[in-house]
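Hi Q.,

Before the meeting this afternoon, I wanted you to have the pyridoxal-5'-phosphate prediction in hand. No need to reply - just skim if you have a minute. The sequence and ligand are here:
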Amino acid sequence: MAISSHSSVDGLPVAWYNLAADLPQPAPPMFEPSRDEPLRPSSLAAFMPAALAEQEFSTQRWIDIPPEVLEAYRSWRPTPLVRAVRLEKYLRTPARIYFKDESRSPPGSHKLNTAVAQAYYARQQGLQRLVTESGAGQWGCSLAMACSMFGLSCKVFMVNLSCQQRPYRRTLIRLWGGEVIASPSLQTAVGRRLLSRDQDYKGSIGIAIAEAVENALGEAGAAYGCGSVYNYAMLHQTVIGLEAAEQLAALDEKPDVIIGCIGGGSNFAGLAFPFVSQRLAGQPIRFLAAEPRACPTLTRGRYRYDHTDAAGLTPRVKMHTLGHTYVPRDIYACGLRYHGCAPLVSHLVNLGVVEAVALSESAALKAAQLLAATEGIIAAPESAYAVRAAINEAVRCRKQQSSECIVFCLSGHGLCDMEAYGAYLSKQSKTVAEKPSLVDLLRWSKLGYT
Ligand SMILES: *Cc1c(COP(=O)(O)O)cnc(C)c1O
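Predicted structure with the ligand bound:
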């Protein structure tokens, strides 16, 4: 149904797919930040590009991708759909494992898919600058690059601790022309208040969002850009699933299980939503959302109204949430340390269409190590959770002798995350008596894969 009714050119979709058009029940409405009134598009447009505020409320099934955005996409899309043959062999599974490789974008993750759209609409509106927050730096890099493509300036409030811990992403943002401000900063009232209490305040994503929104509201020609959670970010990411659907069809494959890791929900939504329309039309596809045990939003959070930022400046949306003041434990997958999850993904979990699973960090990193040893690709610590969930499904298929087609999203690469992998390896060599050789890695019974 829906996904076959629209066209693509050279494997690149020409329209984004809007799941809101096909939901059996609409997602619950959003509310104003501090009033019990339904959210108005104008309230969002006060700090975001107007076209995005409009897309947020759209129920139109297909939204044309502007030609300028398509042209930008062409520089790295369509991304490959790779069959992980050596991983399958290693796992001795009858399942076929595919991954959609979103690590191929220049900044190394799926986030550029929405970044270029946001920069384009901001430019169209005559804005000069986009302001945002960044934790690990993936979103900051993508928005900085997109802004440079469309001739905008970009300001990134980067969590102070990440600035110190992730110097490479900080440098990348600056190479793409972005300005990096350690958050909390003296540029905003929120930041000044916090710094007057503690000069070395380490910061958090919630505070960085609050600073970015305050900064965007206070500056003419500037708007705030958000990398996930909002409906428009899910919409832009559907190029992932639309391409994958076409690539799978060309291989005569029908997916049985679709998997993505969950932070704010955008890479999962991007791969899954076009296939959700097939499921709603009766095809028995399973959807698996993999989240960290350290931040178990979908498996342990409550489905209720909450703010999307920690300071309570943004609209209230109905989602699975651990509470907007919840501070998740420090894990390497910074991009998954978010208290809530996109309202559309939460809605699908609530309807029973999407299953969620919480995985441990060590299990996820082990899976990434196995993917590296078999397929050569270094997954982002975030994507490692999707890799683990895919491996678990492939192992289940082996036990059940079931030859299923498993597709997961490799949301990004981990080449800027060597601190995480370095720490993981040194911890591992302390627990494994002898350092494993590559041959050991490939046998790997001691690490629990057989
Ligand atoms: C930001 C990020 C995530 C998490 O965000 P989602 O909106 O849930 O996709 C996952 N993987 C990578 C590589 C990221 O940069």
